[in-house]
Write the structure tokens for this entry.
Amino acid sequence: MDIEIESQSDENPAESTKTYVFDIEREMRNGQTCAGVVRALSNVMDTAPNAMKPLHSVVNCDALDALFRARRYGESRDNVSVTFTYEIYDVTVDASGQVVVSEE
């Protein structure tokens, strides 16, 4: 499921930016946070994942997967988020299982 939010600039109403929110909790539970991020970006960019610039060229996918991997007893990590830039998008991954993709 994804949600699209459009906002307008107060200074220039003709300028608008879009923000997309995705639920990747399933991928996080399976230790595949990067796969969830790729799915979200693929959806926003309307591009097949194999046609995209590799995510590992902008973020360490092994570290991202490890950071959001469930703890020993299946608990998710609290208060952890990571933000990075992928092409023209700011991407924020949150321990709650949400990925927020915003145009820069």
Summary: The chain has a mean pLDDT of 85. The chain has three helices and five strands. The two ends are 22 Å apart (CA to CA). The beta strands are 2-8, 16-23, 81-86, 89-94, 98-103.
